[in-house]
Amino acid sequence: MYKSTKNMWQYRILRTGFFHADGGAMFGAIPKRAWKRKYPADEDNCCVLAMNCLLLWNKDRRILIDTGVGTKDLGNLSYYRFYDNEDIADLVRQEGFTPEEITDVILSHLHFDHCGGCTYKDEEGNLNLSFPHAIHHVGKEQWENYLNPNLLERNSFREEDMFPVQKAGLLHLHDKDAELYPGLNIGIYPGHTPGQLVVSFLSKGDLIVVPGDVIPTKAHISEQWISAYDTHPLESLASKISLKEKMQDKPSLFVFYHDAYNNYLNYTFKILKD
Question: Biggest alpha carbon distance in the chain?
Fold first, then answer.
């Protein structure tokens, strides 16, 4: 699946902010007395979730995996109580790159907390692309679902996050697993939402896996721990089993998009088997 190559990827985890989600929704049918031992909740039964995006680069490409919720129109999302939000373009600059240098944005899916940072509003209120030269990679079924959302997901999609990308001709759709670039693969893992992408890449001898909302936090590694936010839970179960089986013989570092309680070293979690 992965060939040895000198063109290995370097990466940084870009933490773009936090929000609150109902603990019962995050852990579905799992009783609170079980999940609270692995992930804390406040007096309102809300869990704090992070938005941990990744920046990858090699000599040819500079890639983002997800972009967080962004900074525009958050008043419409006040229920989630977003805080400590960072503009992902500013975080890219802090790593020594300009937004114009980003060549690719890989979006696990198009819920607002994963793709909102693809666009921003300037001081005049005009909508702009955050990464104007980047190809934006999306699962084909996810894009179709974004255009015609089911009732469970309708409020998770915002036109202003992705329609400007499409209008600019920067949208690239994928309908199967692929090696996107040498040492970097994408796979399709539905369940949480159709056409969800999982990214894996080689870095300094490690296989780094970015499972998105297939495994949103370290607490969700157990196969039956499925979020009630997942629109097709049996597909989520199958996707999680499939992903873990593919990786079980490979020393892998899993980077969890929503895990808020570990530092850099701990939320890249080495897993061979449960």
Answer: 53
Q: Is 148 exposed, middle or buried (0-12, 13-18, 19+ CB in 10 A)?
A: exposed
Which one-letter DSSP state was computed for residue 59? S
Cα separation, 140 vs 77, in Å, equals 26
Runs of H (alpha helix) within the chain: 23-27, 32-35, 88-94, 112-115, 140-147, 159-167, 233-247
C-alpha count within 13 angstroms, C-beta hemisphere, residue 116: 22
Lateral strand order in the sheet of 206-210: 178-181, 184-188, 197-203, 206-210, 252-255, 268-271
Q: What type of residue sits at position 135?
A: I
Q: What is the pLDDT of residues 164-191, one digit of tens each?
A: 999 999 999 999 999 999 999 999 999 9
How far apart (Å, rounded) are the C-alpha atoms in residues 90 and 129? 14
- Name the residue type at position 211: P
- Report the predicted TM-score, pTM, of the whole model to 2 decimal places: 0.93
Contacts of 176 (CB under 8 A, 6+ apart): 188
The pLDDT tens digits of the residues spanning 99-129 come to 999 999 999 999 999 999 999 999 998 999 9
Q: How far apart are CA 187 and CA 190, in angstroms?
A: 10
pLDDT of 7 reads: 57
